[in-house]
Fold Oxidoreductase.
Amino acid sequence: MKEDKSPKGINDKITKEPNAENPYKLLDLKLTKTGKWAAGVPAVISAFSDLIEEKTLVRGTKALFKMNQKGGFDCPSCAWPDPDDDRSPLGEYCENGVKALAEEATTKKITAEFFKQNSVYDLAQLDDYQIGKMGRLTEPMYLPKNGTHYEPISWDNAFTKIAEHLNALDSPDEAAFYTSGRTSNETSFLYQLFAKEFGTNNMPDCSNMCHETSGSALRTTIGIGKGTVTLDDFYDTDVIVIIGQNPGTNAPRMLTALAKGKKNGAKIIAVNPLPEAGLMGFHNPQEINGIIGNGVKLADLFLPVKINGDMALLKALEIILLELENKNPGKVFDYDFIKEKTTGYEAFLKQFDNYNLDELVQLSGVSKEALYEAAEIIAFKKRIIVCWGMGLTQQPNGVEMIREILNILLLKGSIGKPDAGVCPVRGHSNVQGNRTMMIDEKPTNEQLDRLQAYFGFNPPRKHGYDVVRAIKAMKEEKVKLLFCMGGNFLSATSDTTYTASALRKLNLTVNVSTKLNRSHLIHGQEAIILPTLSRSDIDIVNGEAQFITTENSMGVVQSSKGMLKPVSDNLINETQIVCKLAMATLGNKSVVDWQRYHDSYDDVRDAIEKCIPGFENYNEKVRQKGGFHLPNAARDGKFITKDFGDRAPFTLTEIPKNELAPDEYMMASTRTHDQFNTTIYGLDDRYRGVKNERRVIFMNEKDIEQGGFKAGDKVDLFNYDDNIERIAPLFVIVSYQIPEKNTVTYFPETNVLVSVNNVVKDSNMPASKYVKIKVRKHDPKIYERISRL
Ligand SMILES: Nc1nc2c(c(=O)[nH]1)N[C@H]1C(S)=C(S)[C@@H](COP(=O)(O)OP(=O)(O)OC[C@H]3O[C@@H](n4cnc5c(=O)[nH]c(N)nc54)[C@H](O)[C@@H]3O)O[C@H]1N2
Ligand SMILES: Nc1nc2c(c(=O)[nH]1)N[C@H]1C(S)=C(S)[C@@H](COP(=O)(O)OP(=O)(O)OC[C@H]3O[C@@H](n4cnc5c(=O)[nH]c(N)nc54)[C@H](O)[C@@H]3O)O[C@H]1N2
Ligand SMILES: [Mo]
């Protein structure tokens, strides 16, 4: 008989701490040298040790050869595109893709027996790392009202229960349907269709915490809420600016593109408070000489901006560019482009009468010399790509900062042509596809008209709740049921204590999940877990292995076909879960043939083709190797905006006032090299030299001294927005190369400090990289002041 690898009782592992549902215990922090080079041998070793730990070395390695290969499956980790040609024979994956695969390809599993032996309360005392390591979910589970343990439930009964709850609501708007970004195009399309036929646009999604800011800024300026470059553009461009993004950890395959661009002569400028290893240098693990030989130096210029100093930095650059243009008329700005394609240039220029370069330099935190150097790199080049990530989108003025980036590109005519433009680097592997499929709380009338014409029901027109609004609506009992297609709502969102209390008020929480997470343990009065297949699993419908489709960060739609035997026979794919839910809920009131979509992905794709532009001959085109590019007018130089006709506007923005009290610091919450959002792979952050601890706070050595601390001190962190005390107890100070008064911590641990009201203007995303905190010596009695989640 095979050894049963499923975890059983876990009571012995539980650490009893004062606050039961927040296990705060420090591990044994070790500091190592910070990395100047990303990837290479340590990355290969680290990746494969995860496969071994998850007891899936053979399965996992077999799968790796299929990952991101034509005809294989799309890596479940990030949304970076695959090369059109020239895919590495050593595999087109990275260390963090292997870790993501190890997480889902694990042979460890959670059965009904596991839930019988462990109460929800006990499980909630584990930390996220321990919870994630329990294994794959294998059967639907139900937590009754006042229940202490999840119990097995049949699929049919689970759908009946959810349907009863949905149909008992006073209005469809009392339900909210969340989506995380791994969900395929097919599932996403059906899921939003179901929500709309049920009667609501309450579709909060992870974009509301991620690139909503980019979408808001780009849509109004260039007419499309997506990036305008393709992977090939990286190879032939002259300058790549990477601002507020950590590619070495979060999009490691981007480093291959950067190295290739660099080899062809591009200069790279990195703008970041931290000297991230992946911005500095790269050893390509997919090339033999990259594993053993010399790596490539990446950034030619590193600008250590202060947190939220980017706006000042961008404006300072514009002033210097203007100065260079005045000295070299017509050489720096592109007047033909400005005249033909833009509007608002005069007003834009005029604002500079009011700015003082020295003040801006001061606010940015970067030296004047370095800013001149940056301006000189871009001044006489046209082929410029600007990439950004959460460092900008999660700032209160993120929308404006992205518009400021566009101002620069418009001045120089560096957008809407080959080898130049904008590249918001998306997070989840299909988050861009989710939006294309209309997972959106504010669908346009045009989109809704098309659905109405094809399906014949009246979709709701009123905009729904995004993530932050949904949390508040739950708290106010306006939303009573939360259905989550993937993700980890509680841990990913802001203001953990507030959000937990909001979730606890719900009648029902439902999570379609692959792995156990905290959102199953902090739940509504009743709760249901529906286990599902993951990207790498074989998905058999009507006896045949199927593929699903996704869209990457650059608008390429591709097929993805899993190849691993699922850990349980009792898993249902996400598309069928939606169809069964729709049939149970809507019954014969529905005008949609859900059974047909349940039985055929091709039929779903045919419906998508009819309802969403750009998907002509979807079934045929997506079967071609490498998939197809969606149309992108902005890429072709057409900026069709709602308010400015066919012109892209220059935007007038403001310099934020970042005032801090003497004992206050600015905190950005970010990712370690050993996690995927709320899934914690391990406890190290190798490139930043941290081992075996996540509860760390990076501080400048001067601040450590001035605050009366020493590196290694235990501290508690506080936030006082809205006059509420928020506490994240027990962190260790790590002295780090970071601008003064700036600190960095890891999410999700510090989400408890982010007020639900601390949001980005216009996109309403949590501003989780702009949190004012106070730092005090750890008080062992602090737990008495923390309320239960
Ligand atoms: N392995 C792995 N891959 C991932 C993920 C993961 O968790 N793990 N998550 C996926 C998801 S959903 C997303 S959205 C992406 C996220 O990928 P990134 O956008 O890289 O996200 P973060 O790691 O949160 O932070 C990005 C950078 O912002 C910098 N930063 C902080 N504040 C500022 C500021 O004020 N200005 C500037 N210029 N920089 C600042 C930080 O130092 C950090 O280097 O990655 C995706 N890929
Ligand atoms: N403070 C702070 N907060 C942040 C951020 C930050 O930088 N700082 N980043 C934000 C960002 S960019 C994002 S995108 C959000 C992420 O928010 P989410 O997308 O909600 O969170 P994840 O941690 O990616 O979700 C992990 C869970 O998804 C489930 N899962 C994994 N694969 C699949 C699958 O194939 N199907 C299904 N149904 N379920 C699956 C597993 O059960 C797993 O536990 O967090 C945001 N929160
Ligand atoms: Mo994200």
